[in-house]
Amino acid sequence: MTADRQRKTPRTAHQIARPPLLKIYGLQIAVVLLASVTALPLDMVAAYSIAIGGMISVIPNAYFARQVFRFTGAAYARQVAQGFYRGESGKFITTLGLFASAFVFVKPLQVFVLFLAYLIVMLLNAVLLATLKRGI
């Protein structure tokens, strides 16, 4: 008789709670769109630079999170590790591609505003993860 058959209760794996990804990235997109629409009457180039910079931050991070949290639990340790590698490499390549595309195809572009929006959304990602993890 094996150990699994002797056990009265089913075997459960410890799992790390999955963060509310849709809520996090939905809030980020909403903030980016709100900032872009708010800047629209002042400067159209700045408005779409904000939108592009913000989305350059959101899209690769969402891809990374999707890859990392596809599998959970000790039984899927290999798949979780592969998800980290796949997610990080995909995030890096996507970020480079989106920045390159913005610089090549979008004219005129306010580069400072684009990078500022990118950095602010990166910080917003960290704040939302910390805040939502605590349940606030």
Your description of this structure?
By secondary structure, the chain is an all-alpha fold. The protein has one domain. The chain has five helices and no strands. The chain starts with a helix and ends with a helix. The mean pLDDT is about 85. It is a multi-pass membrane protein. Keywords: Cell membrane, Membrane, Transmembrane, Transmembrane helix. One of its GO terms (cellular component) is plasma membrane. Pfam families: ATP-synt_I. Its main location: membrane.
Number of strands: 0
Radius of gyration: 20 Å
Class per helix and strand makeup: mainly alpha
- The unreliable regions are none
Distinct helical segment count: 5
**Number of folding domains?**
1
Helix proportion: over 70%
* Average pLDDT for all residues: 86
Biggest β-sheet strands, sense, barrel: none
Based on CA inertia axes, which overall geometry fits? Answer: flat
What portion of residues belong to β-strands? Answer: under 5%
Give the termini separation. Answer: 48 Å
Order of helices and strands: HHHHH
Features:
136 residues; mainly alpha; 0% strand
Write the layout of secondary structure elements.
Elements: H1 3-6, H2 21-39, H3 44-68, H4 77-105, H5 111-134
Q: How do you describe this structure in short?
A:
This protein has helices at residues 3-6, 21-39, 44-68, 77-105, 111-134. It has 136 residues and is mainly α. Helix 2 packs antiparallel against helix 5.
